[in-house]
Amino acid sequence: MAASTPRQPRSDRGPSTTVRELGRVTLPEGLERMDRPAVPLGTIRKPVAPRSSSRPPRIYGLDSLRAVAVLAVLVYHFLPALLPGGFIGVDVFFVLSGFLITTLLVRERVQTGRVSLRHFWTRRVRRIIPAMVAVVVVCTAAAGVIGGDVLVGIKLQVLGALTFASNWFAIAQGTSYSADLVPQLFANFWSLAVEEQFYLFWPLVLLAVFSVRRSRVTGLVVTGLFAVGSAVWMAVAYDPAGDPSRVYFGTDTHLFGLMAGAFFALWFAPRTPRDTPQVPDVEFASQSLLPVQSRFARWFPTSRRRWWRHALGLTSAVGLVVLTLTMSVDDAFTYRGGLVLASLFALGLIAFLIRSQPLARRVEVRPLRWVGVRSYGIYLWHWPIVVLVASLMGAENPGRSTSWSVAAVATVVTAVAAWVSYKYLERPVMIAGIRALWTRVAGRARRLVVAARAEQAAPGRSPLARVRLAVAAVLALGLVSAFVLAGVREPATSSLEAQILEGAQAAQEANAAQPAPAPTVEPTPEPTAPAEPTPAPVPTVPPPGDQVTLVGDSVSLISVPALQAALPGVFVDAEVSRQMSTAPEIITAMRDAGTLRTYVVVSLGTNSTVTERVMEDVVAAVGPDHVLVLVTGSADRSWIGPTNDQMRAAAARHPENVVVADWAAAVAAQPDVLGKDGVHPAPAGQDLYARTVADALTGAQALVP
């Protein structure tokens, strides 16, 4: 059908959006920039509003903050003595994630009037899943080839990683954040699980908040309650005498950082699309910054002095540095205010960066931005790599005292893996999607197969394509085979756990073979004339083992064969992770049953903090008619020093029946006697442990009433 001649529009009319005039070449404002084929004359099209990008504009400085946070975590995991509080880098990431994700959702709601959960979760899947799956598959396959302790619990670790529940798997298994019995290959995935669970439930909460009339106030109240409730719950649930892993891993107890970022985003978010600065502010280098700046501009206009802004940034930065240098994962302060303080400092630094964009742009150096852009991949790869490298090099388990050589190799491999992952996997998926990447890979494979067949059909051609195809097939088949092999070769326990179990079995068999001592009644001595005091001979050998009761933990269990050799007939009552607070009850039960022997050795200084009151309870339970030997602990944990001091102080208060077996001093003189975990003694260390206890018992014979 021929198109009719259109009438010319009147000059006093503005841009029209009527169906008739959409057929003209001149499109309404905002549509002429859309990338679409030219509209033929006379074609009727439905007007399409310009789509606003849901991706927030770049804020200078945040990539540098990401870089510093991930580098702090790397230093803490590779060389923990250099940065004992580097683990707070994870909390900086939590605050950043809460702020950016909430800003993205609020921005979409303000600009479009709705929030597309499908688009939001699709973006999260593109950003998170491909790199995570690559790390899990590659590192599990590498562990399958290496074998040994790195495969302990690998099936549950992979399942936890792929179901976004690593933290809850760790809690259910009783995994300790600071335990070194088993080198968990994907131990760092606990924080990813917390974030992924946040990504699942928080958009639903915000949708419910957006449906309320006073949505901003409601959102602030809800977010504040989540944040405060999580922080308080962590402080209340933390047990100073127990393992803090439950409160550290839990989403419920470690949610406050994410909620703090979300609260900040809601507080300074725009209320309408027009809630942006109308007059260019010299503080802003570009109008492409997040709308969060608009409320900053109203609260702190450029006419006011800006010392508060620099003070906020400086205080926050210095505070984070101090915490990374002084805070320990074992300190009570960490869980009763320390992590919350780190989150607040991170929030202050984010606020400073947003308000100081010109400065942030100048100080954002290229190396830091390179690390920050790849921080997700670096965090994913670094821990599995250092575990595998330590296993290959026969070094100590990482996380406590990693050697410099292991740290150097792991750093290089992590950087290369993160670079490859970002260039060939993460960025292509973010740009085109998972399906497009899969289509691209499948297309290259088909072309390779076609080229190989063409070479085979022409005998004179170079076999390059066939070689490439063979190499690719071998690599793919090897990767799949090694991944499956990891599950087949998974051991039930680590080598260290096996030694502890052997010691426990030996102690159980030896205790069962010993007859239970019958309670003895001392006859009442007849009065005699006082005899001349004669000096007692200095003992040179320990008392017989059948006069010794030892109450201990896994350090004692692993040393049972050496103890039985040094003290034949010794009665050992020990359990893994036993703490000093349980000793009074155990000793009292033995005393009431009449099975407590003359010499009582208590070796429980490894797993918890000991107070003066606990030590006095132990001394009281032993009683003045028995001799108590306290064995000091040795490990690079924050409570070991204070606990050993409490033992020495108890011996000084009760010199009549308390002595110290200084295992810590023995290890300090020969540090190579410890195993890979830096806590439990190796075979030579087990002999040294038994000699240390025997020497203390030798000197304690002079104290027998």
TrEMBL record:
GO terms for cellular component: plasma membrane. It is found in: Cell membrane. It is a multi-pass membrane protein. Keywords: Acyltransferase, Cell membrane, Membrane, Transferase, Transmembrane, Transmembrane helix. Residues 1-19 have a biased composition (Polar residues). InterPro entries: Acyl_transf_3_dom, Acyltransferase_3, SGNH_hydro_sf. Pfam families: Acyl_transf_3. Its main location: membrane. PANTHER family: ACETYLTRANSFERASE, ACYL_TRANSF_3 DOMAIN-CONTAINING PROTEIN. This is Acyltransferase. It comes from Sanguibacter inulinus. The lineage of its organism: Bacteria, Bacillati, Actinomycetota, Actinomycetes, Micrococcales.
